[in-house]
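A favour between colleagues. Tell me how you read the following sequence-structure pair.

===
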Amino acid sequence: MNIVKNWGVLLIIAGALSGCGQEHDHKGKTPLVEVAGEYLYKEDLQTAVPFHISKDDSVLFAEHYIKNWVEDVLLFDKAEGNIPDNAKIAKLVENYRRALIMHTYQEELINQKLANEISDEEINAYYEKNKELFHTEHPFVKGLFIKVPLHSQDLASVRKWYKQNNRNAVESLEKYSLRNAVSYDYFYDRWVPLSDVAVKIPLKVLDTDENYLDKNRNIEVKDTAFCYFLHVEEFLGKNQQRPLDFARKEIKEILINLKRVEFINKVKEELYQRASDRNKINYYYLNSNE
């Protein structure tokens, strides 16, 4: 049996349900289905529907989603009434909740406090002692890429600007790209995998020669519709030493993890000491003689 025929029917059903369930506070949401005291709302269904799905497919998706939701609610309701030791499950849930809250809090503390305590000197020292750990697995580049329609105006200026790593040239390209570029990517300030760049430009040699951009730093390619301009400011080949600026983020994470246990134990000890000083801890000892 089809649960819904189209979205119009869904809205009709939603209106009917919301009209006959006034005793329940839906907090502004529009109910679609109710079973065993649980409600599925139109807003939840709309959130679940994939983007760019056709109207017919969205109706089919809605039918399956609603049916699966109803089945899950009924199964849970049946299971809940047939599990003899609900107290045990409640305890497991509570333990998981406590662990999740503590873990989330610890991560927040680490991100807010411990991360800020990692100095540049520590990062530099770790890098110098462990350079062998920081090698590239594949090539990386820094630079700039711009893709424009083949018959765009003022291509002569683009050919001049894209090769220059200076403020005037970059600003000119950025302004130009707002009106003319199909794609514009500035990555002078970060290392980008060569593979991410290669997919943007129709240059087959990049599939066979990973070091091509090390020898050819300015690339212009055309096809039937577009012009592609790529400037490579820095190139880092496979199995090469990563510079400090490239390894810095990873080193910081390593140092945070090395200090994590010590930091959390210190936080626990401080909380314990504070509670003890304020007489917040009550100990109950059994008399072994009784």
Residues 7-82 form one domain. The chain is about 55% helix and 15% strand. The radius of gyration is 31 Å.
